[in-house]
Specification:
Helices cover about 30% and strands about 30% of the residues. Helix 1 links the parallel strand 1 and strand 2. The relative contact order is 0.17. Bound molecules: flavin-adenine dinucleotide (FAD).
């Protein structure tokens, strides 16, 4: 049964909503998650790539939600030359439908309640204070009261705006993406691929994330301000025509990914934002699953602490912001600076970067080696960009 009052209401049961709810409930808070869709994880709007190290701290790895295990990344330069990057740890291409469900189950097993088909439509204000959430469920208008609302409602988040938090993002800090899930194509099951170049994907990249030997998520992300003349679909269709002319498309995904810094404000009295809603996405890769789960683990614990102290003031909730900045927020700022360089990188520079990677034998591949070779072969090559490609090979 759904109660009329909870300590915490989380809006959204994506990875970050479920992880926040789980940590808050595990640490003693009563928690309700409102999810507008029929079940968590549907529809999937994601290439589904994560690193093992990014998600393993928050959930035991289960083969049921892993489509493929990734050991290598392959970069292809505008001139068609490729290089493999080794020794970067293990990654996965997920079945997000099942992964998101598993995270929601974990939240429920730890005490949270989940109400699906519950579309949050606004906040309940009492005496100028956020005191709950308005939502519709099965055609009926409802309200639930709480001390703390957590907006985990994704890239199109409205919760922050309802609370008066500035959530807009500049066009250049949002990638517009199109992705096809394709079958009947030949891919390397343990390798994720990235293609760069101004004619291939201006200010972004094309990805191939394999789900089996003949199935993959093939997608593209283009910086918003470079997608005004020809959109991502134009470039992706060209790419698919050239690389997989006989492949069949079984799913089409359109969506945005922020490549911004974390929002200036992610808390206010009685409210916190987490994940895509707070723009906690790696700006260089567009990866938000692991980063968001990390933020969610902090937010959930601090939410529970707020319940224990009965202190839901922004002053107290700012602890979440501080800890986020120490753990990943400051790194996100560095990634943002790198992204600013990468989106303006010339084809020539991409060609040279791949050339440097090619020169390193497989069993000698390491970050240190890449730096050494980059300095020897091309002192002008921006080293931090090379670093970014290797460290963040998975999103
Ligand atoms: C094309 C594409 C490819 C991507 N590829 C990758 C990748 O390979 N790796 C990676 O790490 N990241 C990737 N991302 C980004 C990743 O999908 C997000 O960062 C991640 O899903 C963020 O999780 P979240 O929980 O914050 O939001 P979401 O997963 O978006 O979850 C938000 C939830 O809130 C619900 N909701 C929204 N509004 C309401 C409301 N009013 N009431 C109730 N519920 C509501 C939604 O239904 C949804 O379930 C990709 C994104 C796109 C668009």
């Amino acid at each position: 049964m759904i109660s009329s009052k909870y300590d915490v209401v989380v809006i959204g049961s994506g990875p970050t909503g479920s992880v926040t709810a789980r940590y808050a409930a595990e640490n003693g808070a009563s928690v309700l998650i409102l999810e507008r869709d029929r079940e968590p994880g549907i529809p999937v709007r994601c290439a589904e790539g994560v690193s093992h190290n990014g998600i393993a701290p928050f959930i035991d790895i289960d083969q049921r939600w892993i489509a493929s295990r990734i050991e290598t990344a392959k970069l292809t330069a505008p001139n068609g030359e490729s290089a493999y990057l080794y020794n970067n740890g293990i990654g996965y291409v997920l079945e997000r439908r099942l992964f998101d469900n598993a995270l929601a189950e974990l939240a429920c097993r730890n005490g949270a309640q989940l109400l699906t088909k519950a579309n949050a439509t606004g906040l309940v204000w009492k005496n100028n204070r956020i005191s709950g959430v308005k939502y519709t469920h099965l055609g009926q208008k409802k309200e639930v009261l709480c001390d703390l609302v957590i907006g985990a409602d994704g890239v199109e988040s409205r919760v922050g705006r309802w609370a008066g938090i500035k959530t807009d993002v500049a066009l250049k800090d949002i990638d517009t993406c199109v992705q096809y899930t394709m079958v009947d194509i030949k891919v390397e099951k343990d390798t994720i691929e990235f293609f760069f170049g101004t004619d291939i994907s201006p200010g972004g990249y094309v990805w191939i994330f394999p789900k089996s030997e003949d199935t993959a998520n093939v997608g593209i992300g283009i910086s918003g301000h470079m997608a005004t003349e020809k959109g991502p679909k134009y470039y992706l269709d060209n790419f698919v025509e050239r690389h997989f002319p006989k492949g069949k498309i079984t799913c089409r995904v359109y969506g945005g990914v922020t490549t911004a810094k974390t929002l200036k404000k992610i808390v206010k009295n009685n409210i916190m934002l987490v994940g895509d809603a707070a723009r906690q996405v790696n700006p260089l890769t567009g990866g938000g699953i692991a980063q968001g789960m990390h933020a969610a683990s902090i937010a959930g614990k601090i939410a529970a602490e707020a319940v224990k102290r009965e202190d839901f003031s922004s002053q107290f909730l700012k602890k979440y912001r501080k800890e986020w900045d120490i753990r990943l927020g400051n790194i996100q700022n560095t990634m943002y600076s790198m992204k600013e360089k990468v989106i303006n990188m010339s084809n020539d520079r991409f060609n040279r970067l791949v050339k440097v990677c090619q020169g390193i034998p497989r069993d000698e591949f390491s970050l240190k080696k890449l730096f050494t070779e980059a300095v020897k072969g091309d002192p002008k090559l921006i080293l931090d960009i090379a670093k970014a490609f290797v460290v963040y090979k998975m999103k």
